[in-house]
Amino acid sequence: MHLDLNSIWYVLVGVLFTGYAMLDGFDLGIGALHLFTRKDEERRLMLNSIGPVWDGNEVWLVTGGGALFAAFPNVYATAFSGFYFALFLLLASLIFRAVAIEFRSKRPERWWRQMWDVSFAAGSVLSSLLIGVALGNIAWGVPVDANGEFAGTFLGLLKPYSLLVGVTTVGLFMMHGAIYGVMKTEGELHDKLRVWARRSIIFFVICAVTLTMATLLFVPHLAPLVRENPWLFSVAVANMLAIANVPREFQQGRDGRAFLSSCAAIVTLMVLFALNSFPNLIYSLPNPEHSLTIYNAASSPKTLGIMLVIAGIGLPVVLAYTVSVYWIFRGKVKLDKMSY
Amino acid sequence: MDVLTLSRVQFGATISFHYIYPPLSIGLGVMLVLMEGWWLKTGKPVYHQSARYWTKVFALTFAMGVATGIVMEFEFGTNWATYSRFVGDVFGSALAAEGIFAFFLEAGFLAVLLFGWDKVGPRLHFFSTCMVCLGAHFSAVWIVVANSWMQTPAGYHLVGEGIKARAEITDFWQMVLNPSTVIRLFHTLCGAWSAGAFLVISISAWYLLKKTHREFARASLEAGLAVALAASLLQAVTGHTSAKTVAKHQPAKLAAFEGLYQTTSNAPLTVAGWVDEKHERTSGLRIPGMLSFLAHGDFHAPVTGLREFRPADRPPVTASFFFFHGMVGIGLTLIGIALLGFWGLREGMLDDRRWILWVLVFSVLGPQAANQLGWFAAEVGRQPWLVYGLMRTPEGLSAVVKANAVLGSLILFTFIYFLLFAVFIYLLNDKIQHGPDDADLVLSGKLALPTRE
Hints:
The complex is a heterodimer of chains A (340) and B (453). With 340 residues, chain A is mainly alpha-helical. Chain A has one domain (5-328). Chain A has helices at 5-33, 40-50, 54-71, 73-82, 84-103, 110-140, 154-157, 160-184, 187-218, 222-228, 232-251, 255-277, 301-328, and strands at 280-282, 292-293. Chain A has a two-stranded antiparallel sheet. Helix content of chain B is 69%, strand content 7%. Chain B is mainly α. Chain B has one domain (3-263, 304-437). The mean pLDDT of chain B is 87. The interface between A and B is large, with 65 and 72 residues.
């Protein structure tokens, strides 16, 4: 891999989507766990544990989408028009979820809160599932025609492999969210979350193992790639170690470290995914010569260069105040009159 | 219906619905900075109470803006894929900048603005408020840059042919500062300031009518009227300059705004009237020579008429005419309303002349209507072009998307938008009924400012 502008932007878009998975991952996970408790106060505590940060987390997706449009307009155009229905479903679930967070605690009536609680949970699960399904399709390959347009159907996107990636993503985010929740709460809810976290870890590990086997056995173009680049194994091993370290730290009550391991698991998964795809952004199956790559789908070098300057100025600032916000809102969550 | 019509309806509906909220966030952002700043300066608790109350309203509009805004970003790709390929290289940098500079700034500091009142000191909180306000303004900058490039493209060259053709950037600053960017940005921002200010005015006037929260309402009303008057006056100035830019760079659009068919020197300004498209005639109340003067600064300068353009290159005339005149009419009325409010406030007679308060209560609809009509005029007036002179609207569609899919998403999102709007109105009403919190008048802990003698 020689480092030209196109490769740099492949990495940067990857960084943005990885940031999204790592950050919004835990608040989507909190959403997926939301209905497990029936107590109103506990639901509020869970909501408020992500209260100050979920919005900023979602910006990573918006910016990732923007960066994809900017750096690789052909991929953005093909993927978004090709995955039309799936994307509108994702949008609908993200909207319902966002609105539910804002609106649920604004009225005391039971039916009102229950309605938004269900929206929040369903929106979170569906968003995670769809994001996973999209990744699964990109890893597997989708039909692309000679003009670089998507040539498949919506139902064609729901193949067993991509659904498996979807379910694994839900499991991963639930685990990630539960551990985050354990860190942010105390008392009874804390103990409950501990139980849920343990169960989600088991669920995710089962999914991850199944997915790894399915990938090795069934994804046709990956085997030769790994055979030619044996060092890819080291990333896979790092990923497995990160995953295995999550239950180890968690059992010993080192929640912070367990959360970091969970972050590392997400990062290594994304790295693995990115290395396997490179230099394709949309791998075309059955006609690999139609694949959209970081070269035939990119903006001009001039634009990539300008954007690199913008990102170079902007990203450090973004990181600095993202860290500050997490610092200001550190510690256990408490309810007050500004809470959701 | 065909894919083109459905996709246009869908994009129009998405952006119109979205555009209810960002102007409110931008305008309220300014109001928040003023109120919190004034609180820090004077130490009067009523301004703290105001800042707290309007922050809650701001949070509501912001949440709606984010939720509806993501849809817009996605729809470029879902429905207008060919257009996205064509403009991607040019818009790329603007959109990336919007994400990095505007969205992160807003979302990051919003957390402190909403939840950090007693977690950080007052000065750091005020700084966060300023950053949120700045972020909201930044997002307007980049999106107006992108849209202005579609009106008056600059700093690019065309590469490739047929469906592979695209515009590539040659000069970043020429692209950003294309001929219409700066003036359209100011015009858009004035509209946004008005939207926020008149919302504050409306709710405050309502409290005065109901004779509750009087001190709070007066303080908010004063601040609201000051911003509203400044914004609506500036709106007229920027509107005039913007029209001159249109006359120079998009003559067909200006001709459609004014329903002018024949190129004439001493061209008349139609104050109010109607267009007869069949006979290519416009009738109504007209001021001779005024259009020539406003567009070119000379009563005898010729103004290009629609007949200079092939019918296939003309925008829809009646629609452009009414959107434009509607916007101008409402904009000028808003100046009058702001003056009326000021006059009532200065003379201290708002309690006796309740009709003034009623006018102020309903004034909130004015900027909303004018903002919508203004954008309708700008976008319909650009037709039949998607990118002026370079790409026609039907050419921008996604190649693979079928009418049924668009119809499905349109129905789904129409339903979602009605639901969202109902919830928004319900919660806004809830906040208005609840009113400002009197506990915010008693300041303790980190909020207690050093008293001033």
